[in-house]
Amino acid sequence: MDTLAGLLREYRVAAGLTQAGLAEKAGLSEQAISLLERGTRRRPRVDTIEALGVALGLNAEQAERLMNVAKPPRAAGAKGAQATGAAASGAAGARRTHAGAEAPGTAGTRAGARASGVAGTRAGARASGVAGARASDVAGATGMQSSGAHASGARASGVQASGAEGPGAGRAGVAAAAALGAAVAAGGVPVAAGGVAAEVGRVLPRQLPPTLSDFAGRASEVVELVKVFEVAQRPEKVQLAAVTGMGGVGKTALAVHVAHLVGDSFPDGQLYLDLRGYGPGTPLSPVDALSQLIRSLGLDDDRGVPSGINELAGLYRSRLAGQRVLILLDNANSASQVLPLLPGVPGSAVIATSRRALTTLPGFRHIALAPLSEADSVELLATIAGRQRVTAEDAAARSIARLTGRLPLAVRLIGARLAARPSWPIEHMVRQLKDEHRRLDEFGTGESGVRANIAGTAEFLANSNQALDRKAAAALGLLGLPDGSDLSALTASHLLDISENDAEQILERLVDLNLLSSGVPGRYRMHDLIRTYARERATQTLSEGARTDALTRVLQHYTAVAWRSQQLTHPDSRRLELASPPARPVAVLPDVPTAMTFLDHERANILALARQASASAELRGLVPELAIAFFGYVEVRSRWIEMRAIDRIARDIAGDLGYERLAAWLEHDLAIPDAEGGDLEPSLDHLRAGLRMFQAIEDLPGQARCCTSLSYVLELMGRLDEALEWAEEALALSLRIGDQTVVGISHLALGRLHSRRGEYELARESFDLSLVLAEKSGNPRSLAKRLQIAGQAYMEAGHHVAAMEMERKSFDIFAQLEDGNAQAECLQHLATSSLALGDPVAAAEQAEAGLRLAHAIGNQQREGLLLIELGRIRAATGDRVAAETAWRQAATALHDFPHDEAVAQAFLTEHQPGS
């Protein structure tokens, strides 16, 4: 039996429209289309149905069919009609739900009672993360959508309903709670597994590239793929599809187009990942792919991301469990590259693309993509170059379709060139393509068709009478040399050895001709097939020395920027002595936030280029210094996985080339990711090896730094006597060489160790000495960190007044440095001390402020620890329900941090009734 939702979706897909496209043509909102197709709104107005029929291009029979399913059923003898003066003729017996009344499907939701999916909603209480909800915002639940993220529970730190909390908060909170309950029941608010309302705050991943506005053909393939991903309330298996075919045949375009068509069936997000299976560049390993996907699902703290393939796969599938997420895995080179990335339980879905058949993947629907038909190729050309023009030269247009091998990428390139040159006859392009000297290989077989078209584009640029076109043609080969996901204009300027402004003009010209794309302002991507051609062109037109020089300039650029960043973050670091003078002016990075943002954008490109350079005899010698320079960024951002990856490569190269001091520092730094991940024995091994290397070259500053690090790791292992010995050794060495930075770090280590041993007066003296040295150094980050560490030690010793003084000073400095992560940690310590001093109100304010910071930066571990503290505060004030809620939320947030999760669970167990 037809339903409005099913029929509307069928007609829309047949018309090749997304929900947004249909909404635009019908003059409706995208939200309205979504509600109709979900079945949430079943009885639209007649004029709405008429507008949809026109937009969909329905014939009379189809339009009548759509109108009929939208009509309300007859209500003869309808039960439950109230005999208050008039029969409910034509009505379904539905009642309007208002604040305070029971709504169908809400299990008797009332103001002050638990709404479906709302954790403990009461008048004036928190409404599961709903920001400032008002009755007017949520009344008419069938029109409501949530922009928040799904979560397994409402956060205690959620924004108050109506901006108020506690008894007497006003009627707005009551109305909001009741209306939200009705909205959840009506399907307007996404509900996660187990009936818990979606949490507002975490941004859902919506990573799909935009669908092509000139997408043409593929009607049968679209229908076939959409059927694979049709809405299933309880799917029996993971929905899987693979699109395969030759390069340039339009695999990604089709997959993205279908993903947009079915995207609303996956309310928990859509992920996109380029596996780089056919490069150029190194294919994405399963470990790297899983790490990226896990971060996209909300785990941003590297300390929570394991390094082993099995552990990563388990964590990834655990995070997908109970969710409906669509995952597009693009450009795979084998089934083995895709297999670890598949969800483990039904609910989520995968579309994979590859140039090779993936027939060994179990349970996949396989779509082998052939080139476009001639008619579809001509249609695509007309859409881009102009319909009137193509109609006037029909024979030439069909020749273009034939000469491009009817490959969408090739047709699109030629169409764009023609569009940019409206006075050119199409026949002129046909003559150019027929010239065999303009085709690298046999045209139309394998990748040759695409390469021939790219070559034609480059030749047109090279032969243009415009100077910019000729410069763009000359630049193409160099722009394709470095591995990496994209290019900035600044990076391109170093590759091309020109100004940034000139580089940007060239890049934009290449975008005009579809040799580059620019999805984000200022950043440019090169398709892998175009990059292949560009590298071949570089090999043919440039000497090996010219190519090496270009990549050398980029490596030196990244190294100089990384050194500048480290100067800002660690101005007293002995590593800075290893910096080579910059070959060119360094990018302007006035402060730490600017430097961090810059390197955030370039991180993946730097790592890719380091790997690429490590395989080149001419370039590998530049990698060790790049890795050492990169320390400032990865340490502040806690990018331990990246730190380990680049330092391992660099350490081996430094050892091979006899760069003894660089190798020793890299060995030392390899201990940091291990220590942060809890792998203390391997960390200890790196530090002992580093110390031996520094001793071999008689580098006393390096030896002193190894000693402080050994003290820190041994303290973590509970070996306090050994740790004290190493701290004293570090102090003696640093005093001997006059290294005030390491002197201060040594006193800090001694302070913590004395405190843990109960030697509080000695601890105070050591802390005071460390802080005085930090103040003299003029390094605010060092001073703030030492204040924070000393404050924590005082707090743990029960000296809360002194602890709060330290933590407040630390917080203020970190606020000036815009370091939200460190501020959240300070607020956690302040909340602990405030509660101990008998001020639960201040403690709650501090914990909640810390929660907001931790949540904003995506630090789940810090968020969980603050929730534990908030639970302690609620318990101390007698609010047992709120305390248990906070601890449950903490356990959920700390799921990937077993030790901390156990602490939250212990609080829950301890405070159970009768315990």
From TrEMBL:
Q: Compositionally biased, Low complexity: which spans? A: 143-158
What residue ranges are annotated as transmembrane? none
User: Region Disordered: which residues?
Assistant: 87-119, 143-167
Q: So which domain of life are we looking at?
A: Bacteria
Q: Which residues form the HTH cro/C1-type domain?
A: 8-63
Against InterPro entries, the record matches this protein to: Cro/C1-type_HTH, Lambda_DNA-bd_dom_sf, P-loop_NTPase, TPR-like_helical_dom_sf, TPR_rpt
Annotated protein name in UniProt: HTH cro/C1-type domain-containing protein
Q: What species was this sequence derived from? A: Kribbella koreensis
The organism's taxonomic lineage, starting at the top:
Bacteria, Bacillati, Actinomycetota, Actinomycetes, Propionibacteriales
